[in-house]
Structures are given as C-alpha cells and as structure tokens.
UniProtKB/TrEMBL annotation:
It comes from Xanthoceras sorbifolium. It comes from the Eukaryota. The lineage of its organism: Eukaryota, Viridiplantae, Streptophyta, Embryophyta, Tracheophyta. Residues 40-171 form the RNase H type-1 domain. This is RNase H type-1 domain-containing protein. Gene3D superfamilies: Ribonuclease H-like superfamily/Ribonuclease H. SUPFAM superfamilies: Ribonuclease H-like. InterPro entries: RNase_H-like (IPR053151), RNase_H-like_dom_plant (IPR044730), RNaseH-like_sf (IPR012337), RNaseH_domain (IPR002156), RNaseH_sf (IPR036397).
Length: 203
C-alpha cells in the first residue's frame, strides 16, 4: 500500500491539478475543421507565409497565387537574411502585394496564418516596434490601390502551400518566381487543396 502524508499529497495535488483540469476542459471541445478555400470567379487569392529559423534568425518568405479553379498562377520564395518571424510574415505579404500590382490583379484575397498580424492590418492598429510599423504602414498604403481586397486568417493546415514555399526560400540563393508551372514540391498540396481536403485541428 502506498501512503502519502498530507503535505506530500497536497504538493502532488497542486502539481497535477492544473493539467487535469485543462485536459477535462479540452476533452469536450470539438476539433476545428480547416480547409483551403477557392476564391470567387474573377478573384485572385494569395496565401503567404514567413519563416524564421535557428538562433541566428535566418528568415525566408513564400507565397502562392491561385484563381477560382485553384489553378496555379504564380509563386515566390526568397531568403531575406537575419530577421524575426513577425518581420518575415509581413515581408511575405508585402512582396505578395508588389506582385499583385505588377500583374494587374484588382480583386484579391489575402490569407495568412499569423492571426495577430492579420488583425493588426485589418484594424489598422499601430505597434511599438518601428520596423514592424513601417511594414504595416506600407501594406495598408498599398491595399486601397485594388478594386476589391479582403484579408483573412487561416490555420497552418490551410496554408501549407505558402508554408512550403517559405521553406524553399531558405534553400534559395536568390529570389525565385514561378509562373504558371509550380515547383514539384507543391503538386500534392495543391491537389489536396483543390479537392477541399479537410484537416481537423485540436483546440
């Protein structure tokens, strides 16, 4: 028989009480279905992502443009040197917006998996970091140039194509752009997105 003193039992109870309560709270929560969605006819959808690796903060960006048939229009990937994950996310969106302007797309849907940054842009918040604010201000100044523009958050499971391109950016010696024909690393992801594959994300 195992015996605990009251003091030992109380200490153990404090250690396990919080995890047990968390487990019980999460037990009844339904997983969140996540799937990439096609844009409306005439719209162009950009999914973007930034990546930052290692202690040195080696950053890269990536993004993919698709139409209402989920057909590949353009993709980009680039290493951007030492940075933070926040700056990488913003740089990925900013580069995407530059490509929107270059290609003359006027009805655009922007989607990324960094919810806080999406909220900052949508609500036009000001932030303390000067470098972050500079990127945010640049992005907000570009958006009115489009006829129609919406921006949304998607969980990582629905942003896999952009994430893959951001990972390719780490391997790139120079900026990469693909037009009409995607890199082979995207083919399976794009097929699953086009088919509406659903991932279930735990809350």
């Amino acid at each position: 028989m195992i015996m605990f003193s009251f003091t030992s039992f109380s200490r153990c109870q404090r250690l396990v009480n919080k995890p047990i309560l968390t487990l019980l709270r999460n037990f009844h929560k339904e997983p969140i279905p996540v799937a990439w969605e096609k844009p409306e006819i005439g719209w162009t959808k950009l999914n973007f992502d930034g990546s930052c690796k290692g202690r040195a903060g080696k950053g890269s960006i990536g993004g993919i443009f698709r139409n209402h048939k989920a057909e590949f229009l353009l993709g980009y990937a680039e290493s951007i040197g030492r940075t933070t994950s926040t700056i990488a996310e913003l740089a990925a969106l900013r580069r995407g917006l530059e490509l929107v302007l270059e290609n003359g797309w006027n009805d655009v849907w922007l989607e990324g998996d960094a919810k806080t940054l999406v909220d900052i842009i949508v609500e036009k918040r000001r932030v303390r970091c000067a470098e972050v604010q500079r990127h945010v201000s640049d992005i907000i100044s570009i958006i009115p140039e489009f006829d129609n523009c919406m921006i949304s958050h998607i969980f990582r499971e629905g942003n896999r194509a952009a994430h893959k391109l951001a990972q390719l950016g780490h391997q790139s010696q120079k900026p990469q752009i693909w037009r009409r024909i995607p890199p082979h690393q995207l083919l399976q992801i794009m097929h699953e997105d086009a088919e509406g594959k659903i991932f279930f994300r735990r809350r």
